[in-house]
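Minutes, project check-in
Item: structure for the 313-residue chain
Input as provided by the requester:
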Amino acid sequence: MRSTSTQQVIQRLGTARGLPASLISDHLARLPESYFAKHGPSAVIQHLELIQHLGSERHCQLVAERQEDGYLVTVAALDQLGAFSLIAGLLAVWGLSIQQGEAFTYAPPALPLGVRRPPAHYLRRYFVDTFGVRPTDPSQPIDWTRLRDELEELLTLAAQGQMAEARRRLNVRVVELLRRATATLPPELAPLEVKVSNDQSPEYTVLDITGEDTVAFLYEFTNALAMRGIYLGRLAINTVGTKVHDRLYVADTQGKKLTSRRRLADVTLAAVLLKHFTHLLPRAADPELALANFDQFIDQVFAPEGEEHSSFN
């Protein structure tokens, strides 16, 4: 558990670096204990310095630090539905395989006593993602400034209500990535284990997905969730060899757990379908068209409750 002394160290270091006291206290209050268990005071200060520069003119900050077997990538950004899928997709098309990762999002603020409609800036939420990534081709240099600028462009489009255009631009590059990956893919479909629980977290429904690492699966799955109004509050990724375990903490757009049996079954089905689809997509005659048609198919899977699945009767 986060100790009082840890909070004091963060506040003292932050003040010495010129960070606003309100930013520090907000950060301490709105991120979960698991964030502070994962990140020490120096990392927290780095995150605060990144967040300090976010606003209407800058939607994200990204830094990369060289490590023995790859890079530690830290992204701080303004929170919006679907943002994580854009990050996951962009890292993939740049040839960066996520080996480990953690994503943490600010909780909604507690409203001051007597305030029913706080100003918009008071409700602003941020997220901090950290990824241990490994280049699929170590001989190719990574232009981190360009990558950050591309992410800023995608997140700006999304913030302007043009998520479909942001995804279209990214899909073109994802398809090209999958074409290049065809030769290295095993022919058989690998098994996938999906577990859904509403008992592991007081705030979120928890999805545990374990299986073979598949190119662009995380991008496609988190995008499918976002496009259907399922919000990603936290994420943990762990890759060992070719096996990956993704744990996603999700809620609906009102911040509530997914409790409908139909909704939970749909999420599980979508995970399995998308895992197999991304495995087979590189072999399609027209991967871009296949991707677009599959999106429509997933729309049917996530049809509102009360509507029948015409494709599954």
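Outcome recorded: The first helix runs from residue 4 to 16.
No further action items on this chain.
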